[in-house]
Amino acid sequence: MPVSCTVVVPTIGRPSLDVLLDALAAMPGPRPDGLVVVDDRPAGPPLTVERPGLPPVRVVRTGGGGPARARNLGWRTARTEWIAFLDDDVVPDPDWYQRLAADLAGLPADVAGSQGRVRVPLPEDRRPTDWERGTAGLATSAWITADLAYRRAALAAVGGFDERFPRAFREDSDLALRVMDTGARLVRGDRWITHPVRPVDRWVSVRVQAGNADDVLMRRLHGPGWRDRAEAALGRRPQHLAVTAAGLAALGLAAARRPRPALAAALAWAAGTAEFAWARIAPGPRERAEVSTMALTSAAIPPLATWHWLRGVVTHRRVTPWRGLPDLVLFDRDGTLVRDFPYNGDPELVKPVPGAREAVDALRARGVRVGVVSNQSGVARGIITREQVDACMARLDELLGPFDTVQVCPHGPDDGCSCRKPAPGMVKAACAELDVDPARTVVVGDIGADVEAAAAAGASGILVPTPVTRRQEVAAAPRRAATLSAAVGDVLAGRW
Questions:
Q1: Which of 130, 332, 446, 450 is catalytic?
Q2: pTM above 0.90, yes or no
Q3: What range(s) does the Glycosyltransferase 2-like domain occupy (predicted)?
């Protein structure tokens, strides 16, 4: 495949995953660079994904973080120029690999994403049900990640998917709007997938009303015109609000012993509910099970839609733009990751601080790369050798690694180098080695030189004070944390 691309498939272990993997394995032509399957189940045995014909496969787990977090872990795990997202319930056409390569080849630099085309097969022997008609809307939806390829750099620039969207709803539209806000374009390709209608129980239309809260978040983030930009119809929420108000008025007036106004409000509620039910029943098969389901759920949906919308109004009173996780976290070594033994050249004295392993692993588990930037002026002073420094770094890697980059400055404070912190050289070198924007990088250290080096490189700094940290350094630090674990917790919470 001439274009550097990784396919990312989030899954909750549905049987349809096997259908997708079989389709990918059977395709002719050159393979993408890799396939990342993100297991988003809270628990369970390892997924069986290996089969002949697939590109190199890697399985990673979120522990049940939801679709936005799963996709974020997938693209952060990959290292290719393009990330092609597929849902686990779609079936790509046999020529999907070739068409994907053709869709991505030669795209101008201002194009950040390419959406595939979706077909939703509906029954030929009867009219579709309400659920089937809703699923068919995917064929004309804009920027859905059932099949959408993004440049990895574009995802990194905006922090990926906003994990405040907890379900597979609106998180893809939000990402598309943020990417386009950077001045980039999204285009449609010529590849095709089939999106079968999944079997569901009769109450699915009730459960999906939770998405009304996500619509509130979209408005808070993108303003009142977000629907036009995302090509998302308003739907029936105003009618649901009116029907709910009529029902509440009927109950309130009846409690107040005002029978005539209560009857009028009840009739208004009944008329609105009946109109809604018929609008759903009329285009469908009108079979007994479908009619009864529509009648029951049409009474439940208006108050539930209104409730979830109000819940969203309360929950999302104040929101800030999504920043996501950094692409890279660089740690000072002595006093931050390990106990500080001045000018240490003995690997046996490399002792991690409490919580260091868990903190670094927590970053890796979310797909954040980690590295070390360490001043070692003992080499210049003749106290230790570079070989001893390397031996101690090797021991650190055994205890807390593997690290994606290790940068060491062997110079003294009077050597005038550009790498010794507070100079930005090591931070910039680490970013250049991993092709990471310094603005998407965090430096964690225990003295002022660490956060000053971060600022000089255009990165963010977090100070974790120790007894040797000067008061002035603590006061001047833009961000502080009591412990290394707390610093990493802030990073994972988006506070960096």
A1: 332
A2: yes
A3: 6-120
